[in-house]
Amino acid sequence: MLDQFGNQFRSFAKNECNNSSPLYEHLAYQIADDEELLLIAKDAANGQPMPNLLFAAVHYLLLTYTDDDLADFYPSFTTTPKPQDRVYPFFKKFVLSHAHEVKTILQKRLVQTNEILRCAYLYPMMTEIYQKHRMPLAFIEIGASAGLQLAMDQYNYCYNQTLSVRNSLTKLVLASENIGDALPPSVTQQFVVLQRIGIDLNPMDVMNEKDVAWLQALIWPEHHERRTLLNKAIPILKQLDVQLIKGDAIEFLTDISRQIDQNTILVVYHTHVANQIPLKLKHALIERLKEISLERPLYHCYNNLFDLQLHQDFLQHGEIKSIRTIDQPDGHARWFKWANE
């Protein structure tokens, strides 16, 4: 069993951390062969990505124990981090010294990264939908975490360093590279959102300091820009009327859809969430959306459901029509490949 856990950390180091987080890459390879730490990591909540959760738990605790020697190796705590090849003894000592706290976090918290930059590839879809129907949109986000993506129409965007989209006077700008087809002309036109609803098994509250700290801890130490975007987006979300519902999306979707104004276009979306949904429930989700489409048309925008691609579908009368399929975008949305069909 421990060999299986070790392989998870090796895979994490190779496939996710390479060229993204040298610190986590080095630590993950070391943990993969360390039975003591693997025995602690195995307490991660069922279905959660073990490496992500363990590293976030340690990062979270370091926000409290900032005077610990381990913090000297984290770029999120110092501008002059110590060499990573010396970090592991300090990391192991910290985890073992705080084993009870680490295990508690592993059991109670979930990996709920609110990657705001992913709005960069969702936003053009929403502008196109609005332009086509000329009706306000109603958002339902599955796996919404704190709901920061529900504020996508309030953020500013910059595509390919040339195409600027201004939606507010804030300094928050989401910059991403489109390496595919030209974005639709609608991308420069604002749209109206009438309702913003998020569903999550464990919603995060941006008014709660501990929840905000967890969101910050989920961001990898070297990713300063992601941390900056998060801190700029939180005040924007606080000003909006956002409804976050705790529970299973498949169970609640129908009732929620019936409460949404009929003079809106319903858009259900989720990014990097469906990979944690069992296959049987993935099919159940699709069937539930088809049932809802018998009562009202809707759009479904998603990835990681049955493949890694990004999809935009239109559902009406129980039928699904594919609007576009976009090749797998960068996990943190630094780039994407737009497709016009």
Describe the protein's topology.
Blueprint: H1 2-17, H2 22-31, H3 35-41, H4 50-62, H5 88-97, H6 99-108, H7 119-133, E1 137-142, E2 156-159, E3 163-165, E4 173-178, E5 193-200, H8 209-218, H9 224-238, E6 243-246, H10 249-259, E7 265-270, H11 279-293, E8 298-303, E9 310-316, E10 319-326, E11 335-336
Parallel strand pairs: 1-5, 1-7, 2-4, 4-11, 5-6, 7-8
Antiparallel strand pairs: 2-3, 8-9, 9-10
Helix pairs in contact: 1-2, 4-6, 4-8, 10-11
Concise structural overview:
This protein is an alpha/beta fold and 341 residues long. It has two domains: 2-108; 116-336, no CATH class.
Number of domains: 2
Class by alpha and beta content: alpha/beta
Number of helices: 11
Poorly predicted runs: none
Write down the overall geometry. globular
Radius of gyration, rounded? 21 Å
Q: What is the ordering of alpha helices and beta strands? A: HHHHHHHEEEEEHHEHEHEEEE
Question: What is the share of helical residues?
Answer: 25-40%
Q: In this structure, how is the largest beta sheet organized?
A: 7 strands, mixed
Quote the average pLDDT: 95
- What is the distance, rounded to the nearest whole angstrom, between the alpha carbons of the first and last residues? 45 Å
User: Spatial order of the strands in the main sheet?
Assistant: 6-5-1-7-8-9-10
Number of strands: 11
**Fraction of residues in β-strands:** 15-25%
